[in-house]
Specification:
The protein contains 5 helices and 8 strands. The longest helix is centred in the middle third of the chain and has 28 residues. The protein binds 2-acetamido-2-deoxy-beta-D-glucopyranose (5 copies). One of its GO terms (biological process) is negative regulation of coagulation.
């Protein structure tokens, strides 16, 4: 039967050391829930399976001591400021269109990179809206691609908004393709302490991207695009 087959395969896998073939990963998750103009944030980051950062409300905490305290405090404040700006922008849109947007939107960003045992790396940035794939970032070309199945105007507008910031897409590409992978390479070879300063850049940029997107979603669902 297939369960027996599966057990055999797993045994074989264990014997051949398939487990060791698992890629090393750095992953960041960030949820933004907007309801009646109020934004709620939550997120975490994982490095090699261990929790490295936690985002609760507008507070981001460094769980693994990856950055020296002074540098971390500056970064933490920068993230807090982005989240505050985002909340204010959403509140502004909601006031503008109070009658039109009494509903809830749920955005989720997932970004990071994998390093495979053969030295190959892969990076990703996926955004979903209400649990449905919304946009993905194509790292080689630094472009946003639409994934949203229906109501294409919403995703198109968000994509247009995000594309307005070439510095952001360039930084994002650099973070995902280079910084993120460097962190994993350093981790995999354990070359000792090194600056992991750009770690949180991804989180910050994730938020920036969402700011543009929020504008798109609110404008479009308000019926003006
Ligand atoms: C990060 O959050 C996700 C979703 O809630 C959860 O499944 C995962 O276990 C968390 N990661 C860690 C390392 O706590
Ligand atoms: C965030 O940090 C502030 C000040 O440090 C604290 O008062 C607040 O309770 C924290 N909020 C959460 C959700 O952890
Ligand atoms: C997301 O879901 C809420 C209901 O939970 C709905 O009101 C809203 O219109 C949805 N957003 C989009 C863009 O479809
Ligand atoms: C390295 O491994 C990954 C995952 O198994 C695979 O997708 C990729 O094609 C491999 N690359 C090379 C150059 O062998
Ligand atoms: C991504 O990284 C690879 C390997 O380091 C490099 O060869 C490639 O040029 C980079 N691509 C971009 C778009 O930065």
């Amino acid at each position: 039967s297939s369960p027996t087959m599966l057990r055999l395969l797993l045994l074989l896998c264990g014997a051949l050391g398939c487990g060791a073939q698992a890629p090393l990963a750095f992953t960041m998750l960030q949820w933004t829930r907007v309801s009646k103009g109020i934004s709620v944030f939550w997120g975490n980051a994982t490095l090699g399976g261990r929790l490295s950062h936690l985002l609760e409300g507008r507070n981001v905490t460094q769980v693994l001591p990856l950055e020296p305290l002074a540098a971390w405090e500056r970064r933490r404040d920068a993230v807090g400021n982005y989240l505050t700006s985002f909340s204010e922008l959403v509140w502004f849109f909601s006031k503008e269109r109070a009658v039109m947007i009494p509903y809830t939107q749920s955005l989720c960003c997932r970004l990071g990179c994998y390093l495979f045992p053969n030295g190959t790396a892969r990076s990703f940035y996926e955004v979903s809206l209400n649990g449905t794939a919304f946009l993905t970032f194509h790292v080689p070309t630094a472009t946003w691609e639409r994934r949203w199945p229906g109501r294409d105007a919403v995703a198109s507008f968000a994509q247009q908004e995000l594309t307005k910031y070439p510095q952001t897409t360039h930084d994002l590409q650099h973070f995902l393709n280079t910084t993120c992978v460097d962190i994993l390479r350093a981790q995999s070879t354990e070359t000792g302490p090194r600056s992991r300063a750009p770690l949180v850049l991804g989180l910050t940029l994730g938020v920036l991207a969402v700011v543009g997107m929020a504008g798109g979603i609110f404008l479009c669902t308000g019926g003006s695009c």
